[in-house]
Amino acid sequence: MTAPALILLADGAEEIRLLRKRMQIQRPELPIHLAFLDQCPPSGPQVISALASRGTREAAFVPMSLTHAVDVGQAASDMFERVRAAHPDMNLAMARPIGPAAELLSILDLRLRNALSSCHALELDGLVLATPNSGDVRGQGLIARRARQWSSHHRLPVAMASVDGSGSSIAAAINLLREQGRRAIAVGALFLTASESFMAAVEQALSAGALTVSAPLGADERIIELVMSRYSFTAMDMLDAVPADEHLGDDVITSSLELVAL
Hints:
CATH class of the largest domain: Alpha Beta
GO molecular function, one term: metal ion binding
Number of helices: 9
InterPro entries: CbiX-like
Protein name: Sirohydrochlorin cobaltochelatase
EC number: 4.99.1.3
Keywords: Lyase, Metal-binding
Number of strands: 7
Protein backbone atom coordinates (compact mmCIF):
# COMPACT_ATOMS: atom_id res chain seq x y z
CA MET A 1 0.00 0.00 0.00
CA THR A 2 1.30 3.45 -0.93
CA ALA A 3 0.98 6.13 1.73
CA PRO A 4 -0.80 9.37 0.78
CA ALA A 5 1.55 12.19 -0.15
CA LEU A 6 2.05 14.65 2.72
CA ILE A 7 1.77 18.33 1.78
CA LEU A 8 2.86 20.98 4.28
CA LEU A 9 0.54 23.94 3.78
CA ALA A 10 2.12 27.19 4.92
CA ASP A 11 3.30 30.67 4.04
CA GLY A 12 6.57 30.72 2.14
CA ALA A 13 9.62 30.84 4.41
CA GLU A 14 13.04 29.23 4.58
CA GLU A 15 12.22 27.50 7.89
CA ILE A 16 9.41 25.54 6.23
CA ARG A 17 11.76 24.37 3.49
CA LEU A 18 14.23 23.22 6.14
CA LEU A 19 11.44 21.46 8.02
CA ARG A 20 10.40 19.56 4.89
CA LYS A 21 14.01 18.62 4.16
CA ARG A 22 14.51 17.21 7.66
CA MET A 23 11.25 15.28 7.45
CA GLN A 24 12.16 13.82 4.07
CA ILE A 25 15.54 12.67 5.39
CA GLN A 26 13.84 10.97 8.33
CA ARG A 27 11.06 9.44 6.20
CA PRO A 28 12.56 8.75 2.76
CA GLU A 29 9.71 6.37 1.90
CA LEU A 30 7.06 9.08 2.36
CA PRO A 31 6.56 11.71 -0.38
CA ILE A 32 6.62 15.10 1.40
CA HIS A 33 5.88 18.34 -0.45
CA LEU A 34 5.38 22.05 0.22
CA ALA A 35 2.46 24.21 -0.85
CA PHE A 36 2.23 27.89 -0.04
CA LEU A 37 -0.80 30.08 0.58
CA ASP A 38 0.96 33.36 -0.18
CA GLN A 39 2.61 34.43 -3.44
CA CYS A 40 5.51 31.98 -3.13
CA PRO A 41 5.37 29.02 -5.51
CA PRO A 42 4.34 26.27 -5.54
CA SER A 43 0.67 26.74 -4.71
CA GLY A 44 -1.62 23.94 -3.60
CA PRO A 45 -3.14 23.48 -7.08
CA GLN A 46 0.34 23.36 -8.64
CA VAL A 47 1.48 20.65 -6.23
CA ILE A 48 -1.65 18.54 -6.72
CA SER A 49 -1.42 18.87 -10.51
CA ALA A 50 2.20 17.72 -10.43
CA LEU A 51 1.32 14.75 -8.21
CA ALA A 52 -1.61 13.80 -10.45
CA SER A 53 0.63 13.86 -13.53
CA ARG A 54 2.92 11.34 -11.80
CA GLY A 55 0.03 9.03 -11.00
CA THR A 56 -0.39 9.85 -7.31
CA ARG A 57 -3.94 9.10 -6.20
CA GLU A 58 -3.94 10.29 -2.58
CA ALA A 59 -2.60 13.33 -0.74
CA ALA A 60 -3.14 14.96 2.65
CA PHE A 61 -2.57 18.64 3.41
CA VAL A 62 -1.30 19.54 6.90
CA PRO A 63 -1.85 23.25 7.69
CA MET A 64 1.11 24.66 9.60
CA SER A 65 -0.88 27.27 11.54
CA LEU A 66 0.03 27.43 15.24
CA THR A 67 -3.06 29.45 16.20
CA HIS A 68 -5.90 27.55 14.50
CA ALA A 69 -6.92 24.30 16.16
CA VAL A 70 -9.84 23.20 13.95
CA ASP A 71 -10.71 25.76 11.26
CA VAL A 72 -8.02 25.87 8.59
CA GLY A 73 -8.95 29.39 7.46
CA GLN A 74 -10.69 30.75 4.38
CA ALA A 75 -7.66 30.76 2.08
CA ALA A 76 -6.86 27.11 2.78
CA SER A 77 -10.52 26.07 2.51
CA ASP A 78 -10.94 27.83 -0.83
CA MET A 79 -7.75 26.29 -2.20
CA PHE A 80 -8.82 22.81 -1.08
CA GLU A 81 -12.21 23.10 -2.76
CA ARG A 82 -10.52 24.18 -5.99
CA VAL A 83 -8.15 21.22 -6.08
CA ARG A 84 -10.91 18.75 -5.24
CA ALA A 85 -13.04 20.10 -8.07
CA ALA A 86 -10.10 20.00 -10.49
CA HIS A 87 -9.08 16.43 -9.53
CA PRO A 88 -12.24 14.48 -8.68
CA ASP A 89 -10.43 11.17 -9.25
CA MET A 90 -7.97 11.84 -6.41
CA ASN A 91 -8.57 11.10 -2.74
CA LEU A 92 -7.61 14.37 -1.02
CA ALA A 93 -7.89 15.35 2.63
CA MET A 94 -7.18 18.31 4.88
CA ALA A 95 -5.75 17.52 8.32
CA ARG A 96 -6.29 19.57 11.44
CA PRO A 97 -3.80 22.44 11.80
CA ILE A 98 -0.81 22.04 14.10
CA GLY A 99 -2.53 24.47 16.47
CA PRO A 100 -1.29 25.82 19.81
CA ALA A 101 -0.18 22.42 21.11
CA ALA A 102 1.26 22.17 24.61
CA GLU A 103 4.56 20.87 23.19
CA LEU A 104 5.22 24.28 21.65
CA LEU A 105 5.82 25.87 25.07
CA SER A 106 9.04 23.90 25.52
CA ILE A 107 10.36 25.19 22.19
CA LEU A 108 9.22 28.71 23.06
CA ASP A 109 11.08 28.56 26.38
CA LEU A 110 14.29 27.50 24.66
CA ARG A 111 14.04 30.28 22.08
CA LEU A 112 13.33 32.88 24.78
CA ARG A 113 16.20 31.74 27.00
CA ASN A 114 18.55 32.13 24.04
CA ALA A 115 17.18 35.61 23.31
CA LEU A 116 17.54 36.71 26.94
CA SER A 117 21.08 35.38 27.04
CA SER A 118 21.98 37.23 23.85
CA CYS A 119 20.78 40.56 25.25
CA HIS A 120 22.43 39.89 28.64
CA ALA A 121 19.17 40.38 30.52
CA LEU A 122 19.67 40.38 34.29
CA GLU A 123 16.04 40.60 35.32
CA LEU A 124 12.66 39.43 34.03
CA ASP A 125 9.33 40.15 35.70
CA GLY A 126 6.76 39.98 32.90
CA LEU A 127 6.03 38.05 29.70
CA VAL A 128 3.99 38.62 26.57
CA LEU A 129 2.79 35.67 24.49
CA ALA A 130 2.59 37.04 20.95
CA THR A 131 0.86 35.32 18.04
CA PRO A 132 0.33 36.32 14.39
CA ASN A 133 -3.45 36.23 14.92
CA SER A 134 -6.03 35.08 17.45
CA GLY A 135 -6.83 31.87 15.57
CA ASP A 136 -10.19 30.13 15.44
CA VAL A 137 -12.56 29.80 18.40
CA ARG A 138 -10.95 26.61 19.68
CA GLY A 139 -7.50 28.03 19.05
CA GLN A 140 -8.29 31.14 21.07
CA GLY A 141 -9.21 29.00 24.06
CA LEU A 142 -6.06 26.93 23.75
CA ILE A 143 -3.82 29.98 23.39
CA ALA A 144 -5.33 31.39 26.59
CA ARG A 145 -4.65 28.06 28.30
CA ARG A 146 -1.06 28.05 27.08
CA ALA A 147 -0.62 31.58 28.47
CA ARG A 148 -1.88 30.41 31.88
CA GLN A 149 0.41 27.38 31.79
CA TRP A 150 3.37 29.55 30.83
CA SER A 151 2.56 31.98 33.63
CA SER A 152 2.29 29.17 36.19
CA HIS A 153 5.53 27.57 35.02
CA HIS A 154 7.57 30.77 35.34
CA ARG A 155 5.56 32.33 38.17
CA LEU A 156 5.30 35.51 36.14
CA PRO A 157 2.32 37.41 34.73
CA VAL A 158 1.70 36.71 31.03
CA ALA A 159 -0.25 39.03 28.74
CA MET A 160 -1.47 37.86 25.32
CA ALA A 161 -1.12 39.81 22.08
CA SER A 162 -1.68 39.33 18.36
CA VAL A 163 -0.09 41.19 15.48
CA ASP A 164 -3.01 41.37 13.05
CA GLY A 165 -5.31 43.40 15.30
CA SER A 166 -7.65 40.52 16.14
CA GLY A 167 -6.59 40.80 19.78
CA SER A 168 -4.64 43.14 22.02
CA SER A 169 -1.58 44.66 20.37
CA ILE A 170 1.89 43.90 21.67
CA ALA A 171 2.24 47.49 22.85
CA ALA A 172 -1.06 47.24 24.74
CA ALA A 173 0.03 43.98 26.36
CA ILE A 174 3.33 45.51 27.47
CA ASN A 175 1.54 48.57 28.83
CA LEU A 176 -0.84 46.32 30.77
CA LEU A 177 2.11 44.67 32.47
CA ARG A 178 3.69 48.04 33.19
CA GLU A 179 0.48 49.12 34.91
CA GLN A 180 1.01 46.13 37.21
CA GLY A 181 4.46 47.42 38.11
CA ARG A 182 6.42 45.17 35.75
CA ARG A 183 9.43 46.70 34.04
CA ALA A 184 11.62 43.91 32.65
CA ILE A 185 9.32 42.41 30.00
CA ALA A 186 10.18 39.92 27.27
CA VAL A 187 8.07 38.70 24.37
CA GLY A 188 7.69 35.04 23.51
CA ALA A 189 6.83 34.73 19.82
CA LEU A 190 4.52 31.83 18.98
CA PHE A 191 5.48 32.03 15.32
CA LEU A 192 6.70 29.17 13.19
CA THR A 193 8.79 31.25 10.77
CA ALA A 194 10.40 34.67 10.39
CA SER A 195 7.45 35.91 8.36
CA GLU A 196 6.48 39.52 7.75
CA SER A 197 4.08 39.16 10.66
CA PHE A 198 6.93 38.03 12.91
CA MET A 199 9.10 40.96 11.84
CA ALA A 200 6.20 43.30 12.63
CA ALA A 201 5.96 41.69 16.08
CA VAL A 202 9.66 42.31 16.71
CA GLU A 203 9.36 45.95 15.66
CA GLN A 204 6.27 46.53 17.80
CA ALA A 205 7.80 44.84 20.85
CA LEU A 206 11.11 46.69 20.77
CA SER A 207 9.37 50.01 20.09
CA ALA A 208 7.25 49.41 23.19
CA GLY A 209 10.33 48.77 25.32
CA ALA A 210 10.50 44.98 25.49
CA LEU A 211 13.84 43.51 26.52
CA THR A 212 13.86 41.05 23.63
CA VAL A 213 11.72 38.86 21.39
CA SER A 214 12.27 35.14 21.01
CA ALA A 215 13.15 33.70 17.60
CA PRO A 216 10.55 31.73 15.61
CA LEU A 217 10.06 28.10 16.63
CA GLY A 218 11.46 26.89 13.30
CA ALA A 219 12.24 23.34 12.18
CA ASP A 220 12.20 21.73 15.60
CA GLU A 221 11.91 17.96 16.02
CA ARG A 222 8.80 18.36 18.20
CA ILE A 223 7.04 20.19 15.38
CA ILE A 224 7.92 17.36 13.02
CA GLU A 225 6.29 14.97 15.50
CA LEU A 226 3.14 17.11 15.57
CA VAL A 227 3.00 17.18 11.77
CA MET A 228 3.30 13.40 11.60
CA SER A 229 0.59 13.00 14.22
CA ARG A 230 -1.85 15.17 12.23
CA TYR A 231 -0.93 13.36 9.01
CA SER A 232 -1.27 9.85 10.47
CA PHE A 233 -4.72 10.57 11.90
CA THR A 234 -5.91 11.93 8.56
CA ALA A 235 -4.36 9.02 6.64
CA MET A 236 -6.40 6.64 8.79
CA ASP A 237 -9.58 8.56 7.94
CA MET A 238 -8.68 8.40 4.24
CA LEU A 239 -8.24 4.64 4.48
CA ASP A 240 -11.65 4.27 6.14
CA ALA A 241 -13.28 6.35 3.40
CA VAL A 242 -12.07 4.18 0.50
CA PRO A 243 -13.16 0.58 -0.17
CA ALA A 244 -10.56 -1.82 1.18
CA ASP A 245 -10.06 -3.59 -2.15
CA GLU A 246 -8.79 -0.35 -3.66
CA HIS A 247 -5.93 -0.36 -1.15
CA LEU A 248 -5.19 -3.99 -0.32
CA GLY A 249 -5.09 -7.39 -1.88
CA ASP A 250 -7.40 -10.12 -0.56
CA ASP A 251 -4.59 -11.71 1.43
CA VAL A 252 -3.25 -8.51 3.04
CA ILE A 253 -4.27 -7.18 6.46
CA THR A 254 -3.01 -3.80 7.67
CA SER A 255 -3.48 -2.68 11.27
CA SER A 256 -3.90 0.92 12.39
CA LEU A 257 -0.51 0.76 14.06
CA GLU A 258 1.11 -0.20 10.77
CA LEU A 259 -0.48 2.75 9.00
CA VAL A 260 0.53 5.21 11.71
CA ALA A 261 4.07 3.92 11.31
CA LEU A 262 4.09 4.92 7.62
